[in-house]
Amino acid sequence: QVQLVESGGGLVQAGGSLRVSCAASGSISRINTMGWYRQTPGKQRELVATATSGGTTNYADSVKGRFTISRDNTKNTMYLQMNSLKPEDTAVYYCNLRLLSGANLILTTYWGQGTQVTVSS
User: 115-120 and 10-13 as β-strands: parallel, antiparallel, unpaired?
Assistant: First the structure.
């Protein structure tokens, strides 16, 4: 079983920076992709950034040039560095991990519990 625990959310003024972290524990075998998503009340969860095991990254247009996804393999931790934050970035941020396992390469998706990021104007 894999557990993801996020941390680092909080309140920041517009234009500021924040880094959220996601620590993974458990049986982490072959990573397919890792990523960050966010959700605001009444809206669907949306993709913020993803990265493949090969290092290819993908960002939502709204965060390109401001956010950076990364990971530290030695700590089994992924990060989302958020710069030049805007009030519209306010949301609950969730980390996501997709793992492949077994000879049939079964894909399993895991989610963190979410961390609140609030950007004041």
Answer: parallel
C-beta neighbour count of 75 within 10 angstroms: 11
CA 112/CA 71 separation, integer angstroms: 15
Sign of CA dihedral 24, 70, 48, 51: negative
What's the pLDDT score for residue 51? 94
113: Cβ contacts below 8 Å, ≥ 6 apart: 4, 5, 6, 94
Is residue 105 scored above 90 in pLDDT? no
End-to-end CA distance of the chain: 40
Tokens of 85: 């934050």
H or E element at residue 117: strand 115-120
Q: Helix (H, G, I), strand (E, B), or coil: what is residue 87?
A: helix
Over residues 3-41, the pLDDT tens digits come to 999 999 999 999 999 999 999 998 887 888 999 999 999
Rounded CA separation 7/22 (Å)? 6
